[in-house]
């Protein structure tokens, strides 16, 4: 039996919300892991190394 990672929903982020950190201050579990800043401007799509949350830069 192989462990499969659960697919995370993509969290869309506007440019006005940058710089992006995970967890975000408005997240219900904002203290679940250390804050990490993700290079969303450069990558356009990033995954948090702690919780696996997937963020994508929104065009609008």
From TrEMBL:
It comes from the Bacteria. Pfam families: zf-CHCC. InterPro entries: Znf_CHCC. This is Zinc finger CHCC-type domain-containing protein. Gene3D superfamilies: q5lls5 like domains. Residues 31-55 form the Zinc finger CHCC-type domain.
